[in-house]
């Protein structure tokens, strides 16, 4: 495990995702990005072989952060307000990436798809046997989700990187919430929140026919 692992705590990621859903069942953008930033920090601790993944995640996080720091920041407070604003103003490329290659909607969709993988991966970790291989859990859940959106070359590179993952128990201990059992318990608490964020976003994107944005 590379140096710096101690700076990550699953608790922070958990807190961020629990803060995402508002009373009106809207998904708040800032804690969503904070959750991803925590995950990227964790990924960076796992070694440079994962940097092509974390770089892409960081690029996407920054695109949305830039909208949150722009004059239109209020429009990007929640995923609902972002979708409404970008669609009403013709700011989303619906057929082909052209005039608005980095719309908030298409960028967020990439993170949203990755959240689906995360949800399945964490569930696999939580319910896995003590001696199960993280690399197997990771590749199975990746193949069942995100891989469907990636070209061959990325799937191949991801498959190679997954082989570098530590065993399940080392992985759980890296989460810095105590023993492997305690980490499993915390995953059990965190997952319903992550699932809820995923579900609300999925419904919103389906309703506006945005699930295939180029
Ligand atoms: C623990 C191992 C981590 C494995 C991560 C699995 C995801 C593999 C994704 C491979 C992405 C490759 C880079 C480029 C992809 C882009 O082509 C693609 C599409 O974007 P675009 O602009 O070309 O249309 N981008 C994506 O699909 C976004 C991918 C973001 C992946 C973010 C993954 C961050 C991972 C965090 C570590 C999670 C650790 C979980 C345990 C922590 C406990 C809470």
UniProtKB/TrEMBL annotation:
Keywords in alphabetical order: Cell membrane, Cytoplasm, Endosome, Golgi apparatus, Lipid transport, Lipid-binding, Membrane, Nucleus, Transport
Catalytic activity: N-(hexadecanoyl)-sphing-4-enine-1-phosphate(in) = N-(hexadecanoyl)-sphing-4-enine-1-phosphate(out); N-(9Z-octadecenoyl)-sphing-4-enine-1-phosphate(in) = N-(9Z-octadecenoyl)-sphing-4-enine-1-phosphate(out)
A Gene Ontology cellular-component term: plasma membrane
Gene Ontology biological-process annotations: negative regulation of autophagy; negative regulation of interleukin-1 beta production; negative regulation of NLRP3 inflammasome complex assembly
Keyword Cell membrane: yes
InterPro entries: GLTP_sf (IPR036497), Glycolipid_transfer_prot_dom (IPR014830)
Gene Ontology molecular function terms on file: ceramide 1-phosphate binding; ceramide 1-phosphate transfer activity
UniProt subcellular location: Cell membrane; Cytoplasm, Cytosol; Endosome membrane; Golgi apparatus, trans-Golgi network membrane
SUPFAM superfamilies reported for this sequence: Glycolipid transfer protein, GLTP (SSF110004)
Topology relative to the membrane: Peripheral membrane protein
Highest taxon of the lineage: Eukaryota
Keyword Nucleus: yes
Transmembrane segment boundaries: none
Glycolipid transfer protein domain boundaries: 27-176
A Pfam family hit: GLTP
Main location: membrane
Family per similarity comment: Belongs to the GLTP family.
Name of the protein in question: Ceramide-1-phosphate transfer protein
Organism for this UniProt entry: Gopherus evgoodei
